[in-house]
Design a protein that fits this description.
By secondary structure, the protein is an alpha/beta fold. 42% of the residues lie in helices and 15% in strands.
């Protein structure tokens, strides 16, 4: 049976820790190999994302593989993929070796009920983003060495990265403090955190979230208008409420994340470049894991 990477929960503690530790151990993130030679990866993107496409393509190509990109803002082929999944997925197996899905809710991909003999990797969905979560946790480990006693703050709207970070608190010993604008219902998210039983708390303001935090995540900007984005933006004054050595992570591309003041984004606290490096590292380790099985 093919190995799939859809959610943190599906991967489990042992695999998550292994992927993070192996990603940290790669001597050079851009190291090239022939592991994916003669292997073809299909990138199925339901929405445009240059950063995700670049990262996946770089990982596959630096390992000697080939990528095919299919991206469309229209929902025509999305409906086809959902409605005829049982028939299409086995056919795909004749043409490709693995599939990356982006922008498609993973709950709609019933992989276990479909005859899929190739790995399916979630490159980011509204309800899960395991690669981002694992890569950011790897960054946190490189900075703090140990996650016990560490607090991460989330400021902004909900996206797949937040879903995966909440799931990751079951396997990694850090606390997560979440502030989401009040007009958005977080009931389901809070219920999931309660079921996990890990240290995830929900507060009402950015100031409460970042207070004495070790890491600050600039969450998704979602449908917030310009005025609301300004209220929830990451300013030097807000970062000053975190620990003096706090680090900043972006949960999405700069144009989709909560606005970050230029002074913060260009400061020592910003981990934007390191995030890109570790996402490449995690993608490569995932490719090794799904095919070595």
């Amino acid at each position: 049976m093919a190995r799939n990477v859809l959610t943190i929960k599906d991967l489990g503690s042992e695999i998550c820790w292994m992927l993070v530790q192996q990603a940290i151990g790669i001597p050079d993130a851009k190291l090239q190999s022939d592991f994916m030679t003669e292997r073809v990866a299909l990138l199925v993107f339901a929405r445009h994302s240059l950063p995700e496409r670049l990262c996946v393509t770089a990982a596959v190509r630096q390992m000697g593989g080939t990528t095919i990109f299919e991206g469309c803002e229209s929902d025509v082929w999305q409906k086809e993929a959902s409605g005829f999944q049982e028939h299409l997925m086995p056919i795909f197996g004749y043409y490709l070796d693995c599939l990356y899905a982006y922008g498609l809710p993973v709950t709609s991909w019933n992989i276990s009920e479909t005859e899929v003999r190739f790995p399916v990797i979630n490159a980011g969905s509204p309800d899960a983003h395991p690669v981002h979560a694992l890569a950011d946790i790897a960054c946190m480990l490189r900075i703090s060495r140990y996650l016990k006693g560490v607090t991460a703050a989330w400021v902004g709207c909900v996206n797949g990265t937040l879903h995966s970070l909440i799931e990751a608190t079951a396997w990694f010993p850090f606390a997560l403090r979440v502030a989401v604008p009040r007009q958005f219902d977080t009931g389901a998210l809070e219920a999931r955190a309660a079921r996990i039983g890990s240290p995830v708390s929900f507060v009402y303001s950015p100031e409460e979230a970042v207070h004495d935090a070790n890491f600050v995540f600039a969450g998704y900007r979602g449908t917030l208008d310009a005025e609301e984005q300004a209220l929830w933006g990451i300013s030097p004054e807000l970062m000053a409420k975190a620990r003096p050595d706090a680090r900043l992570f972006l949960s999405a591309s700069p144009v989709r994340a909560i606005p970050v003041a230029p002074a913060v984004l260009s400061s020592r606290a910003s981990q934007l470049v390191r995030q890109a490096e570790y996402r490449l590292r995690v993608h490569k380790r995932i490719l090794h894991w799904v095919f070595e099985g």
